[in-house]
Each structure stands twice: as structure tokens, then as C-alpha cells.
């Protein structure tokens, strides 16, 4: 929460990327953000207020350069610090659409998918871009038989989560062995929101440690299953490096056991989870720092056990795409409650960003058409939904605003569009990809007719 006096800083200029913090996950605005001669925010060479005039609001604005930079930093850092082979795969649940998939694939990354819909989106993007040899890994704690068939037919590696899934896979007709990784629960705690911790023992994901030997024996008894690796993931929005370092030792020990049992293990997937800087106080390690810690820890864990270096896989999502995107809103009504609070309302809210009401997530914002004006008031940014909890940002210092000003919420690339809904029958927003002064529509704004597209009215209820 921001509780300082509102005049303490300019509204927007201090959020621009600094040369000493070149890692995208450590910035508040995209790397290309600048303030132009009209004192307006530009991203990717495009004036944000002009984008709103052209495409409407709310509007997701994705900076291609920032996304590409994050992809390259991950890939190059693993090549620098890990002595064995490595592979970076995008956790596409953060934001799955054709354009995002195309950019990520263009930077040489693979994909982590969690549904038939994400498989279909990824395959379509790869087909359209000619990158059909890109590896895809299929996650999920309750995959259906139909989804498993689709994934196997599509050439995905299956990250197996539980006994039922193992048995369904073993029962599939397949002309060749099905490559799988086993997801294991490492029992490692980390400081993050309880909903996004996945590595502790009380988790819906993965096989428990006391099941490992039985799982290994079962897989060895099924000729159709080819277990090529192990997987574990400890959570999301993590700033600490120690939990990831601890994970290396746990996984290496299980990896050694699997090899001794006779499994053809060659891949070690450590998940993702690196956090980003949503507000000034957040201080995550850089992409390079995180990769270095993970790489050296895995290498040492293997050296200590006399293991050859496996293919090391990481699956970042949020730290790739979150700060590459902002959401632009148009400010509408104002409500001032003397000596208590001032609300300003925008034309979106929990339907385009459910994270504050779901996770109590915090954000920062700027006024895109008043980037250098000093903060003059502390306000609470409210959404337009019929829900008292529809608050995007509580108690933020901003310049004095009027209806029609453009409020831009920062770092909205991860779990915003992907979790968007039609609550209150609001159409989902449009999204544009900006790059070197060009803006391309990558997701069309839904229309009112789109809201009715799946509706069906029984004949007995219609007019005779």
C-alpha cells in the first residue's frame, strides 16, 4: 500500500526502465516505454493515448521487444551458466494466444500447456510460423482421456501428475512409446501466496515422495511408457533463490534413484516461478541471477552424485510476459468521501484483471496523458462491475485526474487476459502488439453479439 504524501514523486517518469536494471522482470514499465514531447506515454514507439483512440479501452498493449528480450535472457543465461544442454519452455497459461506463441517460438523456446485449448492454440501458431518441430510439454492434474489422446497424437511429452493418468496412458494404443516426465512433490516451502504454492506436500499436484519407488516400478512395467525425465515446481512469484537451490538436490537424488531402477532418464525440469516487480518495493532477482543460481545448483547436485548433466528444463511464464504488457483504461466517474477515501472508476476491472480480487495482488499505474505531472492526491482505482470488491488498486498517488484521462495499469501480461471473463456480460478487451512504431491487433474486442454466440433459447420460451 502506498501511504506516503501524494506530492513525493512524479506520477510516471520514475517508472521507466533504468540502465542498471535491464532484466524485464525487474522493471515496472516495458523496456521501450518513454515519455514523448507531448508528455504522453509511448510503448514500442506508439503513443498509448492514441492507441486508445484507435482501438478503444480497456486495451492490453503488449511490447514485442520486452517479450523477446526476456526470452533471450533466459535462453542465453542457461547457455552461459549450465554446463550441460538446456531448454526453456514458456508456461503458456500466463497468456496463450497466437501472437504470443509466435513471438516466443521465434525466440527458440518450447511450450508448457495445460489443456486441449492451449495445445490447439500452440499447434496452430507453430503451423502458421513454420516451427512445427518445437517441443510441447503437457501439464495438468486431471487430464481427460480425450486430452491425453490429443496430446499424444500431437507429439507432446506428457508430464504425468497422478496414478489415474499413468493408467490411462498405459491403456492407450500407440505405435511408439509415449514420452513422459513424472511430476513429483518436493516438499519445499516458499514465501508466496498460498494459492500459487505448488511444491509443498499439501498440494493437489504431483506424486508424493513416499510413492516414488512404486511409481518407478509401475512405469518400468509398462512398455508403452518411456519415462525420459522428472519434474517439480515449487510455486510462482518467488523472489528467493534458496528454494530453487534446495530443489536441485532433491530432484538429483530422485533422478539417481530412477537411473538405478533402470529408467531412461535424461531430462530434469525444475519448473519456473521467478517473480516480477509489480510495485516499487518488490525486488526480484534478475533473470540471469535466477538462471545462474538454478544452473550451478543443478550442476553441483549432479557432480556430487556422479551424474551426467541431464537436459535442464525451465518453464517461466510470468517473468517472460508480465511486464511486457500494460492495460490502458479510460477514467470515468469519481466519488469523494471526505476524510476517508476518493474513488476513481475505470471502464474495466475484475473481468479483465481478476488477480486483485482473487490473490489480493498489487499493481502500480500511471496517467498516460500526464506523465510528468506531480501526484496531487491519493485515490483508489475501482472497476465498473457490480461488486464491492472490484478494486484494481487501493490508495495510490496520482496526478489530479478528470474523466477521459487514460490510466495505465502496469505489468498485466500474465494471468490477466488468460483469466478474463464476461462477468456482468462485459465483452473481453482487445489486445495489440506494438513494435517500432507499429501496432497490430492480436485479439479483437468482443462484441455484444459475441456474448450471445453460445446462448440457446428453448423453443417453448420463444415468441409463438
Short description:
With 464 residues, this protein is α/β, with parallel strands linked by helices.
What does this structure look like?
The protein has 464 residues and is α/β, with parallel strands linked by helices. The chain contains twelve helices and 20 strands. It has helices at 48-55, 64-81, 98-106, 116-129, 145-153, 163-170, 212-220, 242-261, 287-304, 318-321, 355-359, 448-451, and strands at 34-35, 41-43, 46-47, 59-63, 86-91, 110-113, 136-138, 157-160, 178-183, 225-231, 267-269, 311-314, 325-337, 341-346, 365-367, 377-382, 391-398, 406-409, 430-435, 438-443. Strands 4, 13, 14, 15, 16, 17, 18, 19 and 20 form a nine-stranded mixed beta sheet that branches. An eight-stranded parallel barrel has the order 5-6-7-8-9-10-11-12, surrounded by six helices. A three-stranded antiparallel beta sheet has the order 1-2-3. Helix 7 (212-220) links the parallel strand 9 and strand 10. The termini are far apart.
Radius of gyration, Cα only, in angstroms? Answer: 23 Å
In terms of DSSP E residues, the strand content is: 15-25%
Largest sheet: 9 strands, mixed
Oligomer: single chain
Average pLDDT number = 93
Spatial gap, N to C terminus:
58 Å
User: How many strand elements?
Assistant: 20
- Note poorly predicted spans: 1-8, 190-200
The number of helices is 12
Helix-and-strand structural type: alpha/beta
Helix fraction, binned, reads: 25-40%
Shape: globular
Detail the topology: elements first, then pairings.
Elements (H helix, E strand, L loop, with lengths): L33 E2 L5 E3 L2 E2 H8 L3 E5 H18 L4 E6 L6 H9 L3 E4 L2 H14 L6 E3 L6 H9 L3 E4 L2 H8 L7 E6 L28 H9 L4 E7 L10 H20 L5 E3 L17 H18 L6 E4 L3 H4 L3 E13 L3 E6 L8 H5 L5 E3 L9 E6 L8 E8 L7 E4 L20 E6 L2 E6 L4 H4 L13
Parallel strand pairs: 4-19, 5-6, 5-12, 6-7, 7-8, 8-9, 9-10, 10-11, 11-12, 14-16
Antiparallel strand pairs: 1-2, 2-3, 4-13, 13-14, 13-18, 15-18, 16-17, 19-20
Helix pairs in contact: 2-9, 3-4, 7-8, 8-9
Subunit structure: Homodimer.
InterPro entries: Ala_racemase/Decarboxylase_C (IPR009006), DAP_deCOOHase_LysA (IPR002986), De-COase2_CS (IPR022657), De-COase2_N (IPR022644), Orn/DAP/Arg_de-COase (IPR000183), PLP-binding_barrel (IPR029066)
Family: Belongs to the Orn/Lys/Arg decarboxylase class-II family. LysA subfamily.
